[in-house]
Design brief:
Length: 368
């Protein structure tokens, strides 16, 4: 149980009522102490002097930060259940609400770090906020926004009005958030930052996907994501209709120019990979010339990357491959060029712009 507005070192008389059962006792107000049951509470000090307090009774099983994080993890989409995502959410809240990140734990008390709301809003003021799209686009990140509010204050309710990956218009309500005003406003900016970034990526990705519609080409992202945002950024690409390239350096071999130079050639680099790992990881080879494409085809990799090639050269590479190895085009990819690249017959087009240059989707929260 977490109680605001009282001295945590004093003792209070707590009456806990559940149905017809009544339990009374002397309790020390301590955020680390779970309530005896799911209760409605009334606190008194001294001879029946009631205090106007705001109290949070945490549901059973959510009495520690780790337990709350696990509950939140299970509600996130599978691609976002990784520890790095939960750590990012925590860091984002802490950096906004406390100057002492290393020594502060997330709890409803953290909302007091919003000094403006702490001074202007009563702790018992309840508000409802509508999260509204201010432009047309594709929604991504609502589960993350919900998790931010849930981590800050488990009593907040978050009702989705739109689905992930859904196209919306300016003025449409994406979600409604209800809870104490202090908690809502403490989490507002962090939630909107995630929602704006991920929806922006999803919106730009959808434009690329639409641009190649009617071809068989698949739009891919790259590792050019914001530090710490690898999984959220790539999740947003999928919400926009694209697919993910490798998650990191650990799940796929991509032999690039510097590897080729260091190993002494394409063939030598591939030989080294297969000697060390066998067929554990898929292998992709970056090429810049048709001669390198021919050499790579003979090695039978899982994919060949055509790096910054002209359209005529890409056409020739597609003819050389003749469907034996999937081809990926990269470099000089933008909304003006992506259609022509797809029409060369390549299987994939990867673009770092999806995640490093997507405009932030304009979204706001208005209290009604």
């Amino acid at each position: 149980m977490i109680v605001f507005g009282v001295d945590p070192m004093e003792n209070y008389h707590l009456t806990a009522q559940r149905g017809s059962a009544l339990a009374c006792g002397l309790y020390t107000v301590d955020p680390r102490t779970p309530p005896p049951m799911d209760v409605s509470i009334h606190l008194e000090r001294g001879e029946g002097t009631s205090l106007n307090l705001y109290a949070i009774v945490l549901p059973h099983g959510e009495n520690t930060l780790n337990e709350r994080l696990e509950r939140i993890r299970k509600k996130l989409p599978p691609p976002l259940r990784h520890d790095t995502v939960l750590s990012l959410i925590q860091l984002s809240l802490l950096e906004d609400l406390s100057p002492h990140i290393s020594s502060v734990q997330i709890s409803p008390k953290l909302s007091l770090g919003d000094v403006t709301s702490a001074a202007t809003l009563s702790p018992v003021t309840l508000l409802a906020g509508e999260i509204i799209a201010k432009a047309a686009g594709v929604v991504a990140g609502l589960p993350v926004a919900e998790s931010i509010f849930a981590l800050l204050d488990p009593q907040i309710t978050f009702k989705h009005k739109k689905a992930e990956g859904e196209t919306v218009q300016a003025g449409e309500v994406l979600a409604v958030v209800t809870g104490t005003g202090r908690s809502l406003l403490a989490g507002e900016r962090v939630a909107l930052n995630f929602l704006g970034r991920l929806s922006g990526i999803a919106t730009l990705t959808r434009r690329y996907v639409d641009a190649v519609a009617g071809t068989s080409t698949i739009i891919l992202d790259t590792r050019k994501t914001a530090p710490g945002f690898r999984r959220p950024d790539k999740y947003a690409v999928r919400m926009g209709g694209g697919q993910n390239h490798r998650m990191g350096l650990f799940d796929m071999v991509l032999i690039k120019e510097n590897h080729i130079e260091g190993a002494g050639g394409i063939t030598e680099a591939v030989r080294g990979v297969r000697q060390k790992y066998g067929d554990t990881y898929p292998i992709e080879i970056e090429t810049e010339t048709l001669a390198e494409v021919e050499e790579s085809l003979a090695l039978e990799p899982d994919r060949i990357l055509l790096d910054n090639m002209s359209l005529p050269t890409m056409h020739q590479a597609v003819d050389l491959s003749a469907g034996r190895v999937p081809l990926e085009a990269s470099g000089n990819v933008n909304l003006e060029t992506v259609r022509a690249i797809a029409e060369t017959g390549v299987d994939y087009i990867s673009s770092g712009a999806l995640t490093h240059s997507a405009p932030v989707f304009d979204v706001s929260m208005l209290v009604r």
